[in-house]
Amino acid sequence: MKKRIIGLLLAAAVISTALVGCGSSDSGSSTGGSGSADSKDTGDTAASGKVTITNVSYDPTRELYQNYNPIFEEYYKETYGQEVEVVQSHGGSGSQARSVIEGSNADVVTLALAHDITLIEESGLIESDWIKEFDLDSSPYTSTIVFLVRKGNPKKINDWDDLTKDGVEIINPDPKSSGGACWNFLAAWKYALDKNGNDEEKAKDFVRDLYANVTVMDSGARGATTTFVENGQGDVLIAWENEAINSVKEYPDDYEIVTPSISILAQPSVAIVDENADKNGTQEVAKAYLEYLYSDEAQKVIGENGYRPTNEDILNSFSDKFDLNVNLCKIEDFGGWDAAYEKFFDDGAIFDEIYEG
Which of 128, 186, 272, 281 falls 20 to 30 Å from 248 in CA-CA distance? Predict the structure, then answer.
């Protein structure tokens, strides 16, 4: 129970931070000035000639949007003659979705999974056809789930089976607050099903054994990375691919990446928060901001920051960075996000059953 209490306390902290000040140094970063998610004033924007939009995103996209925002701001200024400032907010994807529902003034959301945006849609803030507004189900980049281990892989972790061994300490975020953790769980579940001839009871036993080895369950993926990389806890981090790539880049002598035999095609989703954008007068800029993620220039920035571009030609140009031959299941294998969330992550569903049972 101690592990879950840590995760829940951290989740509460993230939600509190997001609600109190989405542009604060604890929860996010801004580019181009001193704007914050809570201090946006459309009257001041009109007076200064600058449009400010807020992107409420999830933990591991900090560096991506720090690099993307300036090129978008330059593109928009050159194309439309309008100066734009983009304000960032980051946290666990589920927590970020709840913060928008509860009043965070987001113009756009760029979250870890479609289900989190659907929750905002159901609150009335986003139009119901949001997933069709942008190409590829409003998913301009993808990722997958890998293992980050310490250099030399002392625990010989090569696949999901190895995570259930005695003495292996796993760092992994909490599916109740982290979208990345939901992708992690589903990848492990698919491996367990394939291994056990689609026997769900055996799959439950497998993931129960895996989560019994989770020693810290942080509220978000970036927090889990910090626990493993900065604080030195655990033997293996179940991680977003971009988080693992960036960790190895920063500490090449300390960490290495293990790609499991089966993983999952993770599709982070983007959407305009229509009610806020209408109120703020930012619909046009918000749409351009998300559309430009599909441009060649942005797709290259996406690849440079460890996410997989959806442009196949640009993706292939990063073949030295990504394992393009990994066996990936898809969310459709689980009946889509609504079905997957109901089965695995709702209160009392399979995750609660195996973790608390």
Answer: 186
For domain 145-265+327-356, give the CATH superfamily: Periplasmic binding protein-like II (3.40.190.10)
The CATH classification number of 14-142+268-316 equals: 3.40.190.10
Contacts of 154 (CB under 8 A, 6+ apart): 235
Tokens standing for 55? 């992107």
Residue that is written with structure tokens 């479609």 in the block? 114
Terminal Cα distance for the chain, rounded: 11
- What mean pLDDT do residues 336-345 have? 96
- With a cut of 90, say whether residue 148 has pLDDT above it: yes
Q: What is the DSSP string of 62-123?
A: HHHHHHHHHHHHHHHHHHHS-EEEEEEE-S-HHHHHHHHHTT---SEEEESSHHHHHHHHHT
Residue 221, H or E segment = helix 221-225
Domain limits, CATH 3.40.190.10, in the chain:
14-142+268-316, 145-265+327-356
pLDDT of the residue at 48: 56
Q: Considering the entire predicted model, what is its pTM? A: 0.86
With a CB cutoff of 8 Å and minimum separation 6, the contacts of 254 are 150, 151, 229
C-beta separation of 94 from 179 below 8 A: yes
Say yes or no to pLDDT of 109 above 90: yes
Radius of gyration of the chain (CA): 20
